[in-house]
Here is the input.
Amino acid sequence: MTNILPPGLYDLLQTPALKKRVEASGAVDAAVWANVDPVELPNKITAHLAKELTSYLAETVFDKKDSELWQAALEQAIGSPEFLQSFLPNILPEDHKALLQIKPEGMSAEITNRPDTPLAVSALLTGSSRSPALRTQIQKELESCDRADWLVSFIKFSGLVPLLDVLRRFTQTQASDGGPRLRIATTSYMGATDIKAIEELLKLPNTEIRVSYDTK
Here is the structure.
């Protein structure tokens, strides 16, 4: 993993290692930190430590071909001076804060209309009253991301209409690499995709659409 943190949105717990990455990126003044909700803190810390330990053990233990060697390797890795003195202190969260954003150069205000779902872990939107609405989350994602890639089984015109205004604003500019800012892959399976929806999407600039005609 590179040590440079590009501008953008983040959801990373503050650790000594992360602060060093922010400093190495020259982004100390551009970094936006915030206190983590105490209710969310246990889950965030658990997910963070699991991710860091998984990466560490993958490099030091589970590269062994023989699974019978794992136990000894695991005990050696967890009890090693490198783990206890260097790795572990660097990944432990501190101050109960999280990095939310690194602002682009010249941008004074932070993005406040962030997606409601966490960026650090995946989230399942079920359509129930207890989870955010898919439509609002797509709108917030489009207002805060650099580019979007959609993989959609089928596209209905009625589902597209509420998103058209934000899609028009989003596709006014190219992606940072000069390519399309919105890329969509969908299918013609069961004839469920509305041709009217595809025609409307084709009017958007800086947009690429691919349709699979494999009905099986």
User: Anything to note?
Assistant: The first helix runs from residue 16 to 24. The two ends are 40 Å apart (CA to CA).
